[in-house]
């Protein structure tokens, strides 16, 4: 199929693009035999490091980082006798953005591959987590009774993130496409603005627009998304904050209430009882459609889908976070 034919069939087609990590089955992992440390002098697409030796004589993980799915962020590779890092699932090893050859592989054989075939844009997954603090230091100990610690401060909005995104933007420049970034762990408007501002440095507007996580985190206890908290007033404040973005900064914004990580908006922000479901779905649809920004609907939202039945047992939930 030619790029023109693909564009006619799916004029608004855009891909979910994961540049912070890859799948463990990816062919990137077998390009060359991986060679120790961080892969800076050889082509190793993964961020690896050798284990430390504990005071008891055995090996231990390189640091105390915890993954986003509550497990340790390091997994031992029996083949290389090294640990590789994954801030998400162990089957999603982190790519080594410090390695220029690895970045070039991403640009040439992932980004260009799809745009040359007519894709109109990318949703860039966790696009603020490509750069980690040099040396991979231990995370601050805030839970002394836990083996691992939350390490977001060492890998979200890292020291070279804007350098990398600006470099990637140069690859995107020849294409007539759009990009929308996922920007977790960035509640401060000033930090977020650096990614999408027409006046940001080292270059303007690294990403066309971003999904902010204020909406995603509504009604969740910080550090424990499964412990709900009231959010009535926060809902209004959240929407108002991001609606002011184009007027106050010149940057564009997104409009959304659902994604693959959250419950259905009818259930979260209204009521999914039979007598209210239709009214709530129409009310939320009207709200979104009258706001400023690019509107994104998650699959099933257009017909007012609701959460799964409460009668389901925990064994019937298959997402990684639930299993862990």
UniProtKB/TrEMBL annotation:
Any one Gene Ontology BP term: sucrose catabolic process
Molecular function in Gene Ontology: alpha-amylase activity; glucan 1,4-alpha-maltotriohydrolase activity; oligo-1,6-glucosidase activity; sucrose alpha-glucosidase activity
Superkingdom of this protein's organism: Eukaryota
Protein name, entry field: Alpha-glucosidase
Family to which the UniProt record says this protein belongs: Belongs to the glycosyl hydrolase 13 family.
InterPro entries linked to this entry: GH, GH13_cat_dom, O16G_dom_2
UniProt keyword Magnesium, yes or no: no
Residue stretches making up the Glycosyl hydrolase family 13 catalytic domain: 11-323
Keyword Ligase on entry: no
Keywords: Maltose metabolism
């Amino acid at each position: 199929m030619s790029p023109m034919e693909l564009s006619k069939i799916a004029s608004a087609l855009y891909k979910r693009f994961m540049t912070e990590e890859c799948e463990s089955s990816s062919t990137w992992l077998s390009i060359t035999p991986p060679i120790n440390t961080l892969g800076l002098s050889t082509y190793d697409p993964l961020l690896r490091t050798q284990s430390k030796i504990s005071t008891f004589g055995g090996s231990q993980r390189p640091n105390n980082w915890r993954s986003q799915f509550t497990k340790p962020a390091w997994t031992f590779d029996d083949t290389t006798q090294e640990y590789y890092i994954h801030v998400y699932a162990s089957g999603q090893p982190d790519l080594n953005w410090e390695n220029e050859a690895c970045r070039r592989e991403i640009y040439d054989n992932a980004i260009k591959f799809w745009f040359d075939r007519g894709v109109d844009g990318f949703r860039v997954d966790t696009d603020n987590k490509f750069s980690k603090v040099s040396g991979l230091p231990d995370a601050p100990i805030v839970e002394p009774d836990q083996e691992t610690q939350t390490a977001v401060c060492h890998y979200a909005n890292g020291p070279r993130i804007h350098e990398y995104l600006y470099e990637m933007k140069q690859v995107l420049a020849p294409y007539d496409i759009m990009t929308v970034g996922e920007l977790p762990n960035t509640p401060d408007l000033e930090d977020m603005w650096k990614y999408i501002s027409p006046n940001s440095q080292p270059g303007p507007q690294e990403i066309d627009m971003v999904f902010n996580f204020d909406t995603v985190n509504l009604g969740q206890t910080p550090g424990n998304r499964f412990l709900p908290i009231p959010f009535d007033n926060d809902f209004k404040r959240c929407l108002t904050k991001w609606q002011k973005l184009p007027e106050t900064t010149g940057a564009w914004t997104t409009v959304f209430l659902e994604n693959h990580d959250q419950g259905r908006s009818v259930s979260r922000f209204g009521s999914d009882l039979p007598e209210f479901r239709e009214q709530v779905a129409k009310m939320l649809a009207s709200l979104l459609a009258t706001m400023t920004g690019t509107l994104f609907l998650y699959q099933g939202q257009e017909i007012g889908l609701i959460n799964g039945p409460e009668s389901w047992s925990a064994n019937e939930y298959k997402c990684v976070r639930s299993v862990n």
